[in-house]
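Worked example 2:
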Amino acid sequence: MRKGNIQKNSTLKDYYGKDASPLLFKKLYLFDMDGTIYLGNRLFPGVKELLAKITARGGKTVFITNNASKSVGDYVAKLHRLGLENVTEDNFFTSAQAAVRLMKERHASDLIYVQGTRSFVRECLEGGLNITTEYAASARAILVAYDPELTGEKMYVTCRMLTELNVPYYATNPDRVCPTEFGYVPDCGSMCEGYALATGKTPVFIGKPKPEMIFGAMKKVGVTAADTVVIGDRLYTDVASGNNAGADTLCVLSGEVEIAEVNAAQGAEKPTYVLDHVNRLLPFL
């Protein structure tokens, strides 16, 4: 039997045979989305049933994502289309939300240049930020997000802003790639690496692996780190953010990470538990 397989009515073991039964008694389950509960527009098998069982046991589920290309409303609509009809905006904490909060704290009345999707721009406006998507010498901060709507004109303006203005520069997340049904596309981290080569400027990243999103979700639900598990497919964001917050972490092999990377992981990137897939929890709940 492969290490990652689990037999019903046995003790829950992780990929390496470690007792993973503490996962069954958490009060807050923080799920990454891309590569963890779905891939592209395909919900992974067993996810709907797993979430229902967690709720039936009194647990809380919150979806945490570094992907700022969609608003929370967009994500709710997407999960509804995928069959998760009970999901509401209260079930989310995103890097876009974290970015808006940080900008309101640090640049409440400043003009902020924003590069991102129309959904991200709308979320910034709805959050009360004073923003522009055009070149503006009067801008006092620059905010870049993962942008599948990126154009040559946007890149030109962003590079010009970074080159000509000496103002704080932020980015929503350091993820290098975003998973799709066919493989990967460049994410915000890769885009910012390109801007760094062109301008010499590097951003302050806001989302995972920093622990603020995890702390925010725990505070929202009213639980401690001991009651929480962070579940995701990336060591350098999902796992690191959970470990940095003092919570248990579960790395799943359904998305970006390869088992060789997990074997070599150290420090904040080393997960507490490893499973092939989140649905491996299902028979034990």
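Residues 72 and 89 are 6 Å apart (CA to CA). The chain has two domains: 21-66+209-284, 103-205.
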